[in-house]
Please model this.
Amino acid sequence: MSALKFEGVKVKLGDTEYVVPALPLGALKKLRSQFELIASMDTTNRVVTDEQVDAVIAIVHKAISRNYPSVKVEELEELIDFRNMESLLAAIMSVTGLEKTKGAGRGN
Model:
């Protein structure tokens, strides 16, 4: 495997470990509405809308594709589930330097 372009945090999806880097400011600007959607998710009761699912996938894809440009959205749709969604979003927000928003994790 070639050297990764960006440092980040390791996350495992399926049987593959990825190094997920921070999102750049331009991506944060473009993904603002998706971050607002995930902030209102009720992960405790597993109630999410199609728009929120799309937002999660868009955010994860943007982050992962910085180091793995060949990863397709369709692949992530099959790898992300309720068991890994919260920790994956928390890892992306942490490495990006964002505080975890209420609803996008433990609900603290």
Q: What stands out?
A: Confidence is low (pLDDT under 50) at residues 101-108. DSSP finds five helices and two strands in the chain.
